């Protein structure tokens, strides 16, 4: 999908990024950090436009730009962690190309994570496969920051600490729009 950043793809009367931000806000997140990469200006512009158009009080929205986004998703997670408020107890990580996740999915994941402790890792699961969102507590941030670039995200934590993982079933967490064919099959059809 080199012709356009996934974040800017249309989803009804909105874009993927605007939809994701709306769902996270509706889920009651304390703050939202949008990690930008490709087409930074356009993606951030779409996010800011939505915030300006919305008359409802929303959580603070901040940008964290990852100039090394091509090195893999872990570099984007690391960029986002650098922008997290120092008093945050955890981060919920999701992707913009999961347009079927809704506020109730994020809220339920957060509620499920809160049943654990400061070392509980939450891993969404869908149709027997790892999915999103994931929730990573502050206790693991330094380990994430020490990792080399990777396309595997934080999966190393789930493998290293299986006894600390809570699984949370998410019905819509596996429909990932990675190609133009996926977009046409799931969104435009």
Compact overview of the structure:
This protein is α/β, with parallel strands linked by helices. Helices cover 36% and strands 20% of the residues. The protein has one domain: Spore Coat Polysaccharide Biosynthesis Protein SpsA, Chain A, CATH 3.90.550.10.
Share of residues in strands: 15-25%
By DSSP, the count of extended strands is: 8
Q: Strand order of the main beta sheet, please?
A: 5-7-6-8
Structure annotation, total helices: 7
Taken in chain order, the helices and strands follow as EEHEHEHEHEEHHEH
**Averaging pLDDT over every residue, what do you get?**
90
CATH architecture: Alpha-Beta Complex
Radius of gyration over all CA atoms, rounded? 16 Å
Helical proportion, percent range: 25-40%
CATH superfamily: Spore Coat Polysaccharide Biosynthesis Protein SpsA, Chain A
Q: According to CATH, what is the class?
A: Alpha Beta
Which structural class matches the secondary elements?
A: alpha/beta
CATH fold-type name: Spore Coat Polysaccharide Biosynthesis Protein SpsA, Chain A
Number of domains: 1
């Amino acid at each position: 999908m080199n012709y356009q950043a996934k974040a800017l793809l249309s989803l009804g009367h909105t874009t993927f990024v605007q939809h994701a931000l709306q769902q996270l806000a509706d889920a009651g997140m304390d703050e939202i950090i949008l990690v930008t990469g490709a087409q930074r200006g356009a993606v951030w512009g779409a996010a800011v436009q939505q915030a300006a158009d919305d008359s409802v009080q929303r959580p603070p929205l901040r940008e964290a730009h990852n100039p090394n986004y091509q090195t893999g998703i872990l570099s984007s997670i690391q960029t986002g962690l650098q922008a997290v408020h120092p008093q945050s107890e955890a981060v919920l990580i999701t992707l913009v190309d999961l347009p079927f996740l809704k506020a109730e999915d994020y809220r339920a994941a957060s509620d499920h994570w809160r049943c654990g402790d400061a070392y509980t890792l939450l891993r969404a699961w869908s149709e027997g496969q790892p999915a999103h969102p994931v929730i990573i507590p502050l206790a693991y941030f330094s380990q994430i920051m020490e990792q080399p670039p990777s396309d595997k995200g934080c999966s190393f934590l789930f493998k290293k600490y299986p006894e600390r993982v809570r699984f949370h079933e998410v019905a819509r967490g596996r429909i990932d729009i990675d190609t133009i064919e996926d977009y046409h099959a799931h969104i435009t059809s």
